[in-house]
Amino acid sequence: MATTERKPFLLDFEKPLADLEARIDQIRELAAENGVDVSEEIRQLETRAVQLRQEIFSGLSPAQRLQVARHPRRPSTLDYIQAISDEWLELHGDRGGFDDPALVGGVARLAGRPVVILGHQKGRDTKDNVVRKFGMASPGGYRKAMRLMEHADRFGMPIITFIDTPGAWAGVEAEELGQGEAIAYNLREMFRLNVPILCTVIGEGGSGGALGIGVGDRLFMFEHSVYYVASPEACASILWKDAAKAPQTASALKITAMDLKQLGILDQVLPEPSGGAHADPLKAAATLKQALLQNLEELSQLTGQQRRELRYQKFRQIGVFAEISA
């Protein structure tokens, strides 16, 4: 049976780079078939490809960064867990009759240290995304997350959360099961936990769905990830009744890692490999692991009371501004 080669998913602004790389491959194949030495030409084209990749990804607009954050090949929570942990045991269920596949969690070892890791999990294709609800967690998912965090606090294990969701599941059944209450409960309870809490936006951080596992001592974001109170499409639909204005809205909302760092919301921007995290997932995972270990070491020097106080002050300072008179 004939098989078709699976083409990589390309964003619009990635196509010039893909065309250049395809040209390099074509020249290399033709040279091999005809026994011609084109090593110098290949070297020049590869240098140009590196430059083009850097040019493209260093000048992305907020709307383009949103596309990268939603890239279907971008590493997910389970990808990072497998890459950074020595051991991993996934735990299931909220002990109330539900096990949400859109929010996964369990116990792991990070550089030999026991930790609890949890995060949103999107799918790789349409079928998988339907099962995972596109990473939009239900009330049972947030209750499962809180159960695991309470387990971590009881046994003195640091908590690591990975945020990657367009928002909490907004179905009628979710509201019937108490979506708002489940998220609000998590927000309150995460402030009282004694253990270190490290939160990382690995892709898309949307609204209360992200905040439900986003109260921590440190907040990291990957360079091309986004964090917002409402998606640019939803915001444009509300303000202008036109979702096509999402690119303008993305700029106005200040959703990028650099914007949030300047606003004092974000603690650290994690650089991504040239071409985005999906271009070199292992390198992105190594960057993430280094940041987690460094900050865990710092936070471990503090008492539980000190961590709680710093966590409280961190969130109290978000949104503080000064008025300058004329």
UniProtKB/TrEMBL annotation:
Coiled coil: 282-309
GO MF term (any one): acetyl-CoA carboxylase activity
Enzyme Commission number, as recorded: 2.1.3.15
Compartments where found: Cytoplasm
Leader sequence residues: none
GO cellular component: acetyl-CoA carboxylase complex
Protein's pathway: Lipid metabolism; malonyl-CoA biosynthesis; malonyl-CoA from acetyl-CoA: step 1/1
Keyword Lipid metabolism set for record: yes
UniProt keyword list: ATP-binding, Coiled coil, Cytoplasm, Fatty acid biosynthesis, Fatty acid metabolism, Lipid biosynthesis, Lipid metabolism, Nucleotide-binding, Transferase
Top-rank taxon: Bacteria
Gene Ontology terms: biological process: fatty acid biosynthetic process; malonyl-CoA biosynthetic process
Catalytic activity as recorded in UniProt: N(6)-carboxybiotinyl-L-lysyl-[protein] + acetyl-CoA = N(6)-biotinyl-L-lysyl-[protein] + malonyl-CoA
Location of the CoA carboxyltransferase C-terminal domain: 44-298
Pfam families xref list: ACCA
Quaternary structure and interacting proteins, as annotated: Acetyl-CoA carboxylase is a heterohexamer composed of biotin carboxyl carrier protein (AccB), biotin carboxylase (AccC) and two subunits each of ACCase subunit alpha (AccA) and ACCase subunit beta (AccD).
Function: Component of the acetyl coenzyme A carboxylase (ACC) complex. First, biotin carboxylase catalyzes the carboxylation of biotin on its carrier protein (BCCP) and then the CO(2) group is transferred by the carboxyltransferase to acetyl-CoA to form malonyl-CoA.
Classification via HAMAP family: AcetylCoA_CT_alpha
Protein family (similarity comment): Belongs to the AccA family.
Name recorded for this polypeptide: Acetyl-coenzyme A carboxylase carboxyl transferase subunit alpha
